[in-house]
Every structure is written in C-alpha cells, then in structure tokens.
Backbone:
C-alpha cells in the first residue's frame, strides 16, 4: 500500500467511503446465504427468493441515476445518511417477512439504500478527495478495503445460521446497517472539498456528451455482463454447492475467500489502471472471468476446486470498480462523476436482475444450473472482445498530404 497525502477532511472521506462500501456490499453479497433456510422456513421456491434479490438489483439500478444526480446537485451527505436509514428498514422488513411479497418489499428498500451507499457515491467521494495523479491507485485502495466486508460478514452470518434460526443473521445485519450511519456521514464530507473548476459544462451538457461518447457507451453495455455474472454467482453458488452435497459452510468460505482475495485484486486493478489503458484491462478481466467460470462448472465441484475457484474469481471480482470509475473520471472529470456512474450502473443492474432471477427460473425449469452458466460464459467472452475492440478513445482521422501542383 502507499501513503496518501491529503487533507484531514480528505482522509476521513476516504475512511468513510471504504467503510461504507465494506458494510453495504458485505451485507448485500451475503444475502444468498439465506436462500436455503428462508425458503425452507417460509415454504418458498428458489425463484421466489431470488426474485427479491433480482428486484433489489433492479431498484438499485433504476434509482442510482436520479440519486446520483441529486447527490451531485445538492450534496452527497444527505443522500448517503438517508441511504443508511433505508438500509436498516430493508433489513428489518426482511426479518419480519412472512412470504414472497414482504421479501420483495425488503429488496426494494435495500436497492434504494445501495444506490446511496455503494460504489457510485462512495467512489465519487474518494475520487474527489485526492489529486488526479493519485486517483487510480486511490480508487483501487478504497475498493480493496471495501472488499473486506464480504469475508467478515459472510463468515459471521453463516456461523450464526449454522447454530441459530436465520433471524439471528438478520440481527447481525441490523447492527451493521446501524454502523453505516456514522461511516456514510464521514464519506459525505466530500461535500466540503473544493469542487473542480476546469470544466464549466452544465450537467445537461455533460450528459449529452456521454450519450454520444463511444467509449462510455461501450463501457456501459459491457458493464451489463459484469452484473449478470457476479450476481448469478453470489445468489446461486450456495444453492449449487448445496445440491452437489457440499457442506453449507463451504458456501460462506467461498464468498469469504472471494472478498478476501478481492482486496488484492481491487488494489492491483487500480495500480494497473494508472499505468495501462483501462478499457483494455476491463476487456481482459471479462475474458478471464468467462474462462474461470467455465473451468469450474464443467466438472463436479469439490471443496478444493471450489476454494481455488473462489480465490481466482476474487482476483477478478470488483476490479471493475476502480477501472470503470477511473475511466469515467478520465472521460468527463469528477464534477458529475456520480451521475455518469449512475447512468452506466442502470445497465449493470439490468444484468444483475437477469443473473439473479433468470438463474432461479432456469434452475426451477431444468433442475440444474448448466444452461445458466453457459449463457454467462458466452456473453462474458463477447463483452471482453467488444470492450477491447471498441472501448478505447476514438482514433484520430489520418490526414492525406495535399496534392502536389501539376
């Protein structure tokens, strides 16, 4: 790691941003551990449970752009603190659920809360806290620290689920949601930092540039695949391992290893993003993910192969966050960065919706996940190729030499 020289306010912003990501993402990425006990207790199907996670992702995507616009216009702190309160409401609603409808309502609340507390606003706050030449590696560090929430929360909640009723895990989630309040307040301190003065364009002008910018459009479309593959895995990996006869603790261990190794992967992505073209790194990351997913699912899982898979995926997990965040900052600056990340995130969450609910539908219809992971591998490879081929800056037209006089 490197020492980041910044103001006292900037340091608290970075600490708050990293902790907010760790808590919000740690809870969200551990929700799949409840699939088996909740469906058994409430007599639900896998598709009914995963619909709540799919709705959560859809609401997160739909609300991200308007929430980001409000944060850019009126300040980040009010949105982030409000999001922490809504997160607590969503967790409590899940705890008191008696059927599929209340689980879906919980997913709606958590989706709105994620739009306020997860990567778009947190990474924007972090980007504003440091100078441009330190931005890429800083985003990598914040994303890496934010990844620590997944292994800690996953192992903690699975331990509770192993020995107690699933409501004990909800109590833990409620305590973590309460801890979001002071951390989101600190991250919202980015409102007090000086705003960039170089770009005088209005929000409308920047949005107009974005929808005509090939690199931004390609990045956003390929971001769809990121959401599809990652949410499919976090939602359905525990159930897949369960039907293969694996110990339920293995699912939590796999999620924990993904989060732990992702600390290194996110930092590495930020470091590499400061030295190589970010669009190329994104394309390579998507291609590698497809290869790793295919290698894991072609053979029956074992404890060893599952943990190796988790460690490998951890290196490729949230490295997209510092790369996409840095890419948007390179294209348009940080003044309306939250808004632009919110726009691209709508596409990401469309993929997340399909990855969560579509995986459940395929499993209920066919009795296996084979078709689901095959689709994920194909579209992941396609996204990698498109990102590499078309995601870079437009080439300058070559001027032909003037004709010589006759």
Residues:
């Amino acid at each position: 790691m490197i020492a980041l020289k910044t103001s006292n306010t900037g340091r608290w912003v970075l600490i708050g941003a990293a902790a907010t990501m760790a808590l919000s993402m740690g809870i969200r990425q551990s929700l799949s551990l409840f699939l088996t006990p909740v469906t058994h207790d409430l007599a639900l199907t896998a598709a009914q449970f995963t619909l709540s996670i799919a709705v959560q992702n859809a609401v997160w995507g739909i609300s991200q752009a308007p929430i980001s616009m409000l944060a850019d216009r009126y300040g980040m702190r009010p949105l982030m603190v409000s999001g922490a309160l809504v997160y607590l409401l969503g967790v409590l609603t899940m705890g008191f659920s008696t059927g599929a409808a209340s689980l879906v309502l919980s997913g709606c609340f958590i989706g709105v809360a994620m739009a306020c507390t997860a990567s778009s606003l947190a990474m924007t706050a972090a980007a504003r806290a440091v100078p441009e030449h330190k931005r890429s590696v800083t985003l990598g560090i914040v994303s890496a620290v934010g990844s620590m929430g997944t292994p800690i929360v996953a192992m903690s909640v699975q331990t509770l689920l192993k020995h107690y009723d699933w409501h004990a895990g909800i109590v833990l989630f409620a305590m973590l949601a309460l801890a979001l309040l002071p951390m989101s307040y600190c991250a919202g301190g980015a409102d007090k930092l000086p705003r960039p003065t170089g770009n005088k364009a209005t929000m409308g002008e920047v949005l107009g540039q974005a929808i005509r910018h090939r690199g931004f459009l390609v990045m956003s479309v390929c971001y769809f695949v990121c959401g599809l593959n990652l949410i499919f895995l976090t939602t359905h990996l525990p159930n897949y391992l369960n039907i293969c006869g694996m110990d339920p603790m293995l699912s939590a261990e796999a999620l924990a290893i993904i989060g732990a190794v992702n600390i290194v992967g996110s930092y590495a992505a930020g470091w590499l993003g400061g030295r190589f073209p970010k669009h190329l790194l994104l394309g390579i990351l998507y291609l590698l993910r497809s290869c790793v997913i295919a290698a894991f699912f072609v053979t029956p899982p074992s404890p060893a192969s599952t943990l190796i898979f988790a460690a490998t995926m951890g290196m490729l997990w949230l490295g997209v966050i510092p790369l996409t965040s840095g890419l948007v900052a390179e294209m348009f600056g940080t003044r309306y960065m939250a808004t632009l990340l919110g726009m691209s995130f709508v596409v990401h969450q469309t993929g997340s919706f399909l990855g969560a609910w579509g995986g459940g539908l395929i499993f209920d219809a066919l009795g296996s996940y084979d078709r689901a992971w095959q689709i994920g591998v194909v579209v992941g490879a396609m996204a990698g190729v498109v990102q590499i081929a078309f995601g870079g800056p437009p080439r300058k037209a070559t001027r032909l030499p003037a004709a010589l006089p006759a």
